[in-house]
Write a structure and sequence with these properties.
This protein is mainly alpha-helical and about 110 residues long. It is built from six helices and no strands.
């Protein structure tokens, strides 16, 4: 005799199971990347962060979203990148942890 078919509610995991899996994934991600929060800036970070006056203030937003080409080749024509750098600069200045935390949160998110 075949088993009875599953109802939609029986096939759905509980909220506790979903929360538990999300917590395990978040902890595993933090464990894997915890040492990156102290890695120094490298390569194009000097012109894009240290030499880029357009990230020093979030307002007026137009200045952040239209960085000049001489502020660093990395941010030229990339307003979203420059905005993310400005947000990180507003959080921690030139301390690396916020830049790495921001990148980790967006690169490890599903979708």
């Amino acid at each position: 005799m075949p088993p009875p078919p599953l109802t939609p509610s029986a096939a759905r995991p509980s909220r506790g199971a979903i929360f538990g899996c999300a917590a395990v994934l978040a902890l595993a991600t933090l464990a894997a990347y915890h040492n990156t929060f102290s890695v120094p800036f490298l390569f194009d970070d000097t012109p894009s962060i240290f030499d880029n006056p357009s990230i020093r203030h979030l307002w007026p937003i137009w200045d952040v979203l239209t960085p000049r080409a001489d502020y660093g080749i990395t941010v030229s024509g990339r307003p979203t990148l420059n905005l993310s750098l400005a947000i990180c600069y507003a959080v921690s200045g030139t301390n690396v942890w916020s830049y790495h935390a921001f990148n980790l949160s967006f690169t490890s998110s599903p979708g």
